[in-house]
Amino acid sequence: MILSGKDISEKRLESLKEEIENSGLNPCLATVIVGNDPASQMYVRMKHRACDRVGIKSAGVELPEEVTTSEVVEAVSKLNADPSVHGILVQLPLPKQVDTEAVIESVSPEKDVDGFHPYNIGQLFSGRPQFVPCTPGGIMTLFNEYGIELSGKKAVVVGRSVDVGRPMAALLINADATVTVCHSRTKDLEAEMKEADILVSAIGKARFVKEEMVKEGAVVIDVGINYDENGNLCGDIDFDTVSKKSSAITPVPGGVGPMTIATLMENTLKSAKYHADLQN
Ligand SMILES: Nc1nc2c(c(=O)[nH]1)N[C@@H](CN(C=O)c1ccc(C(=O)N[C@@H](CCC(=O)O)C(=O)O)cc1)CN2
User: Fold this and answer.
1) pLDDT by residue (tens digit) across 180-192?
2) Residues of the chain with pLDDT under 50
3) Which of 81, 113, 132, 248 could form a disulfide with 219 if both were Cys (CB 3.0 to 4.6 A apart)?
4) What number of H helices and E strands is found in the chain?
């Protein structure tokens, strides 16, 4: 079975559009982008396009590559103070001279639609998630939409980043899976992966995961965004061989990526509802 993030995100965006139309709310997402990285620019454009599609107002702040941490924090603070803005997103990665943690912590937890603020990460790890990071949140939606059972399953997450690996592990724990997180210092990565009923790969190496590393019938989720030697976009998983052995698998493109954007739209509406409730 192919887990189509493209199809599910389309479906979710359509229902979100209808919900926003009927809500009487005017949700607004503000994006902050630093520098000229083409991939980051493309992702921000995709986010603004999704906003247009579902009826979320969007505004963009663009800062030069050589900006300082305090200049980024100042831009975020203005958005925190703006009552018409419900969601704030700082596109990552940031240039080397900018303290990413300080910037993430400067976003008001109540507008943190990326779910990266330590408050929201803490809530997630306490089993009371508020804003959930969009990539792992989108993966959970895929599991749900395709009826993939997680309770009691052995899940292996490869990658321990704050934006994907760690929150993914927390979400799987919250869904009663037994979770192992692997990383660059894991002793026998292949042996760990072979045990997985649910394998989530956020390694960042083109087609690294081969058929022999995956258990027969596993559910395989590919978070990788890589380019092969011919410049073609591909994931961490060698899709052609692994798809024959797995029971369900996400493609790249068209798998996890579109779910990231759909979840961001859902988080922004959630924030707009929260702020409207505060006023009533
Ligand atoms: N502030 C954030 N920064 C980053 C995040 C994030 O969630 N918040 N995630 C990634 C990039 N990202 C969104 O920002 C993202 C990556 C990929 C896709 C996507 O839909 N990809 C398509 C393929 C697009 C292509 O042609 O290259 C797909 O997989 O089908 C969406 C969002 C890092 N930064």
Assistant:
1) 999 999 999 999 9
2) none
3) 248
4) 10, 10
pLDDT at position 279: 82
170 Cα to the center of ligand 1, angstroms: 21
- Amino acid at position 66, single letter: E
| Interval 107-128: pLDDT, tens | 999 999 999 999 999 999 999 9
For each of the domains in the chain, give its residue range(s) and CATH number, in order of start. Answer: 24-108 (3.40.50.10860), 134-257 (3.40.50.720)
Give CA–CA dist 136/148, Å, rounded: 15
Cβ 13 vs Cβ 265: under 8 Å: yes
Q: How far is the CA of 38 from the centre of ligand 1 (A)?
A: 12
Active-site pick, 111, 112, 114, 123: 114
pLDDT at residue 75, rounded to an integer: 98
Distance CA 256, CA 178 (A): 22
Other Cβ atoms closer than 10 A to 4: 19
Strands (E), 64-117: 87-90
> To test the ligand 1 pocket, which listed residue (3, 161, 225) has its Cβ within 8 A of the most ligand atoms?
225
Query: 257: CA distance to ligand 1 center in Å?
Result: 5
Q: What share of the chain is helix, strand, coil (3-state, %, to 5)?
A: 45, 15, 40
Name which residue sits closest to atom 11 of ligand 1, judged by CA: 43
Distance, in Å, from the CA atom of 15 to the CA atom of 8, rounded to the nearest integer, reads: 11
Binding site membership of 257 for ligand 1 (Cβ less than 6 Å): yes
Catalytic residue among 91, 111, 153, 197: 91
The count of residues in the chain is 280
How far apart CA 156 and CA 171 sit, in angstroms, is 12
Give catalytic status of residue 238 as yes or no. Answer: no
